[in-house]
Design a protein that fits this description.
CATH architecture of the largest domain: 2-Layer Sandwich
GO molecular function, one term: acetate kinase activity
Protein name: Acetate kinase
Order of helices and strands: EEEEEHEEHHEHHHEEEHHHHHEHHHEH
Subunit structure: Homodimer.
Helix content: 25-40%
Strand content: 15-25%
CATH topology of the largest domain: Nucleotidyltransferase, domain 5
Number of domains: 2
Number of helices: 15
Family: Belongs to the acetokinase family.
Strand order of the largest sheet: 5-4-3-2-1-6-8-7
Number of strands: 13
Catalytic activity: acetate + ATP = acetyl phosphate + ADP
Largest sheet: 8 strands, mixed
Radius of gyration: 21 Å
């Protein structure tokens, strides 16, 4: 059986697996959801069947169940050649992916305070695969690493310098694997090299972020110390006045409760009072549900405002790129966002936009647009698989 690379992505209550061959073609994928709950379930892509999980199944139980399915179906041998893990926060320690050892695990633990909802579950996936495949090289690929090229003017907050020096308070940025893929893919489609491409990359899903990429490197981004800052998201508020915490404390609401609400009950869900799913919001808005239309309006306006802000970090712009579940699939959101950017010269072709650019290599702008606008499906799993293969190869004797 040929070599394979296993990609592991642990969310707070979910687990995604992807299996690639040595040429980085995807062989299989699997998803477990509602982990830790009584109705936990999983399925493997292509098999068209549900995979039973015990009530309250943990990440490591789900991982072992799904890996066993991969093996039983003949998709992978007893062990993969390499394992790649998505890790949300690497702080300033990691500027690139790293082979996992005790020191790397300790450093990920040290960053857990910066991403308390993410790094601990990322570590659970790492520990589970290390236990199952102790002799297989494993790599941590960090959401924050791509943004370690930000200049100080972009990553420093205007707070006492000691906060940064002693505690690492700064903008880190996230979705780095997606933004890096966008830059490389946009360069290929526009006939440029990755080292010369300058784009604004908008990753829009349940989590949303935007990045300014100049000459192939990140120079500005919307997410900050944590994934809460920036754009309106599915359940996250994005930017709010920090004075909100003190104001709400006067209303009897503790800071930890405010933090929970801003992360889990705000954004599209909070504005609409209905859902964080953009497809459902559009349907509700079409049926006259005003709060859903308001949520869409705020989402698009905030996104347009950030696109304009990213222009300040670029000397020229080769393209604006939309990606992620919303960015790739919602012609309405793209159109309403670009509507706010006419002064900058952006203009869409309604026909190309409605067809997701499928007949134009992803390009959806009109002939009169000052800048190209592209829709490119992201592939974070592929980036992680490539990095894991690269690092595992460095261990292979000549």
């Amino acid at each position: 059986m040929e070599d394979t690379v296993l990609v592991v992505n642990c969310g707070s209550s979910s687990l995604k697996l992807a299996l690639f061959d040595c040429q980085h073609n995807k062989l299989a994928s699997a998803l477990a959801e509602r982990l830790g709950q009584n109705d936990a379930f999983a399925h493997v892509g292509g098999l068209d069947k549900a995979i039973p999980l015990d009530p309250g199944a943990s990440h490591d139980q789900a991982l072992n169940t799904l890996v066993t399915v991969f093996q039983d179906e003949g998709l992978m041998a007893s062990a993969p050649t390499a394992v790649g893990h998505r890790v949300v926060h690497g702080g300033e320690t990691f500027r690139e992916a790293a082979l996992i050892d005790d020191d790397v695990i300790t450093a990920i633990e040290d960053c857990a305070g910066l991403a308390p909802l993410h790094n601990p579950v990322n570590l659970s996936g790492i520990r589970a695969t290390l236990a199952r495949f102790p002799d297989v090289p494993q790599a941590a690929v960090f959401d924050t690493a791509f943004h370690q090229t930000l200049p100080k003017r972009a990553y420093l907050y205007a707070v006492p310098e000691a906060w940064y020096r002693d505690w690492g308070v700064r903008r880190y940025g996230f979705h780095g694997t997606s933004h890096a893929f966008m830059a490389s893919e946009a360069a290929s489609r526009l006939g440029k090299t990755p080292a010369t491409i300058s784009v604004i990359s908008a990753h829009l899903g349940n989590g949303c972020s935007i990045a300014a990429i100049r000459d192939g490197i990140s120079v500005d981004t919307s997410m900050g110390l944590t994934p809460l800052e920036g754009l309106v998201m599915g359940t996250r508020s994005g930017d709010v006045d920090p004075g909100l915490f003190d104001f709400l404390r006067g209303k009897g609401i503790a800071a930890d409760e405010v933090h929970r609400v801003l992360n889990q009950e705000s954004g599209l869900l909070g504005l609409s009072g209905q859902t964080n799913d953009m497809r459902s919001l559009c349907e509700l808005a079409d049926h006259g549900h005003e709060p859903s239309q308001t949520a869409i309006d705020v989402f698009c306006f905030r996104l347009a405002r950030y696109i304009g802000a990213m222009m300040a970090s670029l000397s020229h712009l080769d393209a604006l790129v939309f990606t992620g579940g919303i960015g790739e699939n919602s012609a309405r959101i793209r159109a309403e966002t670009i509507h706010h950017l006419k002064l900058m010269g952006f203009e869409l072709s309604p026909d190309l936009n409605n067809h997701h650019g499928e007949f134009s290599d992803g390009r959806i702008e009109s002939a009169d647009s000052r800048f190209p606008v592209l829709v490119i499906p992201t592939n974070e799993e592929l980036v992680i698989a490539r990095e894991a293969s690269r690092l595992a190869g460095a261990l292979t004797p000549d």
